[in-house]
Amino acid sequence: MNFGKNVKNARKEQRLTLEELSERSGVSRSMLSKIEREEKNPTIQVACQIAEALHMTLSQLLGEHEKRESLFIPKDKRLVYQDEQSGFSRYLLSPSLPSRGIEFILNVIPPGQESGVFPPHKRGVKEYITVANGALRVILGKDLTEYDLQEGDSLYFEADVEHQFINTGTEECRYYLIIDSHDAKSL
């Protein structure tokens, strides 16, 4: 994975200093430096904070930029991000096509674990969730609105709010997530 190198390249392309990226993302300058040097793998929450601060998707920072109309992604070639602390795994099931504005993701959360709090996306970004198996609690916004989903349940929300996913069950929770950035607006 070239996450750190891609963060550094994106930061330099946007002519940002480490300090500026730190202020935008809420991630310390020293942590960003370690990530860019690939000395440290961030949690999925921190990785998403960095991606949002760079106005990119996590998939873009993971290096998926193919733009052909027809793409086959073998199971063993799909991009996977695993949070070493929680075991939360994120499988990109679609190519990251920035011009299309859609990401199709399978998230897997071990029993009793959580995603951490994801930062708000840009205004206009929408998320669609369907639970394939297990139990999932979704917490949205500053008012901490909770939704408890079971296998087969779905949830749609406007993702310009903080959001968190918690496995409240006794088995692994697998849920599909579509992030639609078609209508994203800069902050």
Automatic annotation (TrEMBL):
Source domain of life: Bacteria
Keyword Transport belongs to the record: no
SMART domains: HTH_XRE
Keyword Metal-binding set for record: no
Short name of any one Pfam family annotated for the protein: HTH_3
GO cellular component, one term: cytosol
Domain (HTH cro/C1-type) ranges: 7-61
Molecular function in Gene Ontology: DNA binding; DNA-binding transcription factor activity
Annotated keywords: DNA-binding
Protein name, as recorded: Transcriptional regulator
Origin species: Aneurinibacillus danicus
